[in-house]
Design a protein that fits this description.
By secondary structure, the chain is mainly alpha-helical. It contains 16 helices and two strands. α2 crosses α4. It starts with 11 loop residues before the first strand and ends with a helix.
């Protein structure tokens, strides 16, 4: 992680500033260290921030923006081009993403290497601490207007409820042996959009509200962010499913491209495929055989057409929102479209 500059982290920033990403991470670091009650707590939060810095950097490299750091800031600037972004807003969004990712890793049995010999309970505690304390505290620093702050809190809670229900549905049958006919494309699509895209929806709405957008424009910008993130998530799911370093087959994740392939199979073939999916949890040879089959699958290719639909919906929502300066937001759509 880039070292934080000396002196207090800035309260506002502009995306055009060369050091925006570093300023964001510096603000989060100073903020988290200031809230921590002990050095042990600071150590856990620093481990989490190292993970956040790596994920934010990877996001920018792949999509040209960080979907949970850059995107809310860009929406604020699109609505109010002359005003610097209150950095607590992209910080709250980034921290929310981080906490949910930590808890999701635990649910999936994944163990990022940087946690070393830390126990699962410490990882869980860190995710809960970030979500329940740091995120609300960061949101509280976005505005001095009590009514606006209450409105932001309402949107945040609604997005969490939507994400939690998607996670509940995803966890309901974590083993391929438990899959049944109810796990179809519609279910997979619903689970996909109820996590990252619903967080993006909430923070885009909050960014627009903070910048002074009308309620109607804020809802359109939230829709733009939802569809943009859904398109990016589809690409990520495909990369995790088919890439040699992908973890989805090992973890038994049910994603849109995989659901498309399973749904297209006749009943006997489907049963045999689910047996192979279960075996792939522990066999690299079976995982590679499945990757070859899925790469040639017409159903997987058809599922990826959803990405084009989401990008078209994002363009339409952005046009309806009519922000003062839409150029950067339009550029994000084209950057996601160009990936892969």
């Amino acid at each position: 992680m880039t070292a934080a500059p000396s002196g207090p982290a800035p309260a506002t920033a502009r995306l055009d500033d060369p050091g925006f990403a570093e300023a964001l991470m510096a603000w989060i670091g100073e903020f988290a260290d200031g809230l921590a009650r002990s050095e042990g707590q600071r150590d856990l939060l620093r481990l989490a921030r190292a993970e956040l810095a790596a994920k934010e950097r990877s996001n920018r490299e792949v999509f040209g923006c960080s979907l949970f750091g850059t995107l809310p800031a860009a929406i604020f600037e699109a609505v109010a081009p002359g005003r610097p972004v209150p950095i607590a807003l992209p910080a709250a969004s980034s921290l929310c993403f981080l906490a949910l990712d930590i808890l999701d890793d635990l649910a999936d049995g994944d163990w990022p290497a940087h946690w070393g010999n830390r126990r699962p309970a410490e990882m869980e505690l860190t995710g809960v601490l970030i979500l329940s304390v740091l995120v609300p505290e960061a949101l509280a620093r976005t505005t001095d207007d009590p009514a606006l702050l209450a409105a932001l809190g309402f949107v945040h809670r609604q997005s969490l409820l939507r994400m939690a229900d998607g996670q509940r549905e995803d966890l309901a049958a974590a083993d391929p042996a438990d899959w049944d006919a109810s796990w179809d494309m519609a279910t997979a699509r619903r689970v996909l959009t109820a996590r990252g895209p619903d967080q993006a929806w909430g923070y885009a709405a909050m960014a627009a509200m903070l910048a002074g957008a009308s309620p109607e424009a804020a809802q359109h910008l939230a829709g733009y962010a939802h569809h943009l993130t859904a398109a990016a998530s589809l690409w990520s799911d495909l990369a995790e499913l088919l890439g040699p370093e992908g973890r989805d087959l090992k973890q038994g994740k049910r994603t849109v491209p995989l659901a498309a392939h399973v749904s297209a199979l006749a009943a006997p073939e489907r049963s045999a495929f689910l047996v192979r999916l279960a075996a792939a949890r522990t066999s690299e040879a079976e995982r590679e055989a499945l990757r070859r089959e899925l790469r040639a699958s017409h159903a997987v290719a058809a599922a990826m057409a959803y990405r084009s639909v989401d990008l078209a919906m994002a363009r339409a929502a952005l046009e309806r929102a009519g922000p003062s300066d839409p150029e950067r937001l339009s550029g994000f759509i084209e950057a996601v479209a160009a990936v892969g």
